Amino acid sequence: MKVINGFFYSQKVTGVQRFARELVNELDIISAPNEYAIVMPQYVEEIPELRNIEVIKYGNAKGLLWEQWDLFRFVYRKKSILISLCNSQPILYPNIICIHDVAYKTHPEFFKTFYGRLSVIWHRFLFYQAVKSGCHIFTVSYFSKYSIIDTYNIKDKSRISVLGNAWQHIKAISPDDSILQKNCLQKGEFFFILGNINYNKNIRWILNYAQKHLDQCFVVSGRKVKNSKIDIESVPNVQWLGYVSDNEIVSLYKYCKAFIFPSIHEGFGIPPLEALSLGAKVIVANTSCLPEIFQGSVYYIDPYDTCINLDELLSKTSIAPAHLVLDRYSWKNIAEKFKKKVELLKV
Predict the structure, then answer these.
(1) Is the pTM of this model over 0.85?
(2) Most buried among 56, 242, 275, 317, by the most CB within 10 A?
(3) Are residues 266 and 127 in the same domain?
(4) Helix/strand/coil for 41
């Protein structure tokens, strides 16, 4: 039996969890009954409605202990093929894994607090073990693929398959325009930024730029993670909304002047793709995987330089049509590629 590690259903949805959820939804459509099962903790409340993938609730341990003990016991007893989609797997049962990026290894400076340093140690060990186990690795961009290859000196490049991410899920979400009224936002008069308030997301670029342009409004949505010390509320024209619903995010995408993604390191970057699909102008950093993904359909900034005028960038720069990017990515194609590859693997 092929078992999917369903721990991500117990977590809030950010990019990694979005990838896992949408892949499972599409995989359910194209798989035969009982070809796959997904195992998740007993306490998960939001149970996916799947037709062909069996949903199994097992074990009550909290956090990583569930993955390292309860999930391990389940797959060990069943002698299952285990598929982990979110950077982590049982250390006693290494198997197929998706590693979205290796920032824990290549950029430990992003993780400055005690919790962050523990996370670096943990993920470095997991990634090293995944590489040395010989099991197949999926990832989400060619930037991430070659980062893994170069970082861990992998000789056989075919061990790593690139899947990508997609945007179709956002089209099924209806907008909630009340987010505009609640926060006194005018349509087309604010820049929108979405992402966890963490160092690699480079929110400092927004804060530094906003301080130079006090006549402009910047709206930031995301959650503060435990290894972040960024003071998002220190600049008067930057409005931090915290974690908002998907419906509210759709409205913010649709009515912003532009969506800004100044991240200095990404494995893929789903939010700019979502914003692009809803007709927003998109500004991204010219670093890591972002030029690979978005090519000529977005506006680019230097993530280390705020000596720029965003209004001039938007008005004077010509870009390619959004569909040239959007047409390259779909959850359906990702699921088909994933399923085909798993069937070919000898595990």
Answers:
(1) yes
(2) 275
(3) no
(4) coil
